[in-house]
Amino acid sequence: MVSAEPPHPALCLAGPAMVSTATTGGSGRDGEVESFGLQPLKTAAHLPGKGSPSRPESEPDGRPCLAEVVRPPTNGVLTIEDRILRITGYYGYYPGYSSHKREDGLDSPAETAGSQAAGAPSQCQSCACTALRVLGSLLVVLSISSSWVGTTQVMKLTFQSFSCPFFMTWFSTNWNILFFPIYYSGHLVTGSPKQTPIQKFRECSRIFGEDGLTLKLFVKRTAPFSILWTLTNYLYLLALRKLTATDVSALYCCHKAFVFLLSWIVLKDRFMGIRIVAAIMAITGIVMMAYADGFHGDSIIGVALAVGSASTSALYKVLFKMFLGSANLGEAAHFFSTLGFFNLIFISCIPLILFFTKVEHWGSFSALPWGYLCGAAGLWLVFNILVNVGVVLTYPILISIGTLLSVPGNAAVDVLKHEVIFNVVRLAASFIICLGFLLLLLPEEWDSMTLRFLSTFAEKKGEEPGEELSESSVHTRSRSRANGAVSIPLA
């Protein structure tokens, strides 16, 4: 068999040599009959099934045989001998000159077609991966927004028959215990090195320190975050009893401005003027929201409760960054489940105290709206899972945009289902708060990036008239030379 890529032939510059061969007649008479034929190319390696005559040091006439390969001419045929042997099939399907073209960096038509065919699937795969990533990011953003809108609206509906906000907060927080089991189930499906639940739990416990989770760290690190978590959700539900879901969700978006202010003061983060402007816009929106109803009692109390919820949420995030730093998905799942256990063990006494003091009267357990309670708690858990998983699957800025989209989502539900009519001041306040939220999402190097973009755009705009001017000057000079004079056009 002839190999796909034959050995490179080493040719002599003497051209095809005429040799004589001796043949023996069939009748047994010995006679020498001279015949002439083309001698095969002398190659460094012999072809399978063919003779491999040794390459002489010089030709019979004394001329040296050059071992270096002669570069083929532009027509693709090296010599007459090469053409004959290519036609007769001595080199198989690939002639000798094609190997030289590959060495010189020139692709043959077959290789070019093959490379194009190989490049097309890779381009298609990259486009498909990009499209899937974009589609997945959009689905994550829409899922986060939908789950938060659903949580707010279901909580609002629950207040119609069950007005116990602290019990609802306590009940929903207990569902955080399911976070780590759900994460471990996903690990069993997708993780390559399988680990037992105890091994995975110990690995994720490093968020509390190198020694893992101890009883002292459980109380010391979990207690303040559990208190802040409960206060954030409890104040949010209290605000829902006073204001519409749209107003509460818009005011809650101010937590982004509070996070920046606290990070600048406590964590000594970089000062950014644009974020100070965003914080001022958030405060302006808060004042306008309070003024929307003429500073009535319920309106002022509702705005204060929503702002308190945003403040405790910002404090929770800043303290988490200060003491625990960043966490991966497993550590976040471990931390949320720990919060759920702490809530179940240490905070269960508060709903009981509120029940016996008649501050929050439940009635019988059978009379509780378990459907609404479980629905709200489940949506709340889904929202927390999506926020933490979304950071891994997509960009963190998209998670913030998903939270921001809950404002128009709640507005649509309030208008269509609850027939809420928004006045101009309330709409303007929500718009200002959302605009400040978007300004807070700008990266730290946004000013230099904007200046580079503007300078690049200005350079491109400046190059286009120059090119047109050069073309017009060429035409002017050519016409002037035709007339016997040279004229330079004025700029």
In short:
This protein has 491 residues and is mostly helical. It is built from 18 helices and 2 strands.
Describe the protein in words.
The protein has 491 residues and is an all-alpha fold. The protein is built from 18 helices and two strands. It has helices at residues 80-88, 96-103, 109-158, 165-174, 179-190, 197-204, 215-242, 245-252, 255-265, 273-291, 297-323, 329-346, 349-356, 370-393, 396-404, 406-416, 424-440, 446-482; strands spanning 18-20, 36-38. A two-stranded antiparallel sheet has the order 1-2. Helix 3 packs parallel to helix 15 (396-404). The two termini are 73 Å apart.
| Strand and helix order | EEHHHHHHHHHHHHHHHHHH
Terminal Cα separation, in Å? Answer: 73 Å
Classify the helix fraction into a percent range.
Answer: 55-70%
Gyration radius (Cα, Å) is 40 Å
Give the CA-based shape: globular
Residue windows where pLDDT falls under 50 for at least 5 positions: 1-70, 90-113, 467-491
What is the oligomeric state here? single chain
For the secondary structure, the number of strands is 2
Largest sheet, in brief, is:
2 strands, antiparallel
Please tell me the overall pLDDT: 75
Structural class: mainly alpha
Strand content: under 5%
Number of helices: 18
Biggest sheet, spatial arrangement of strands: 1-2
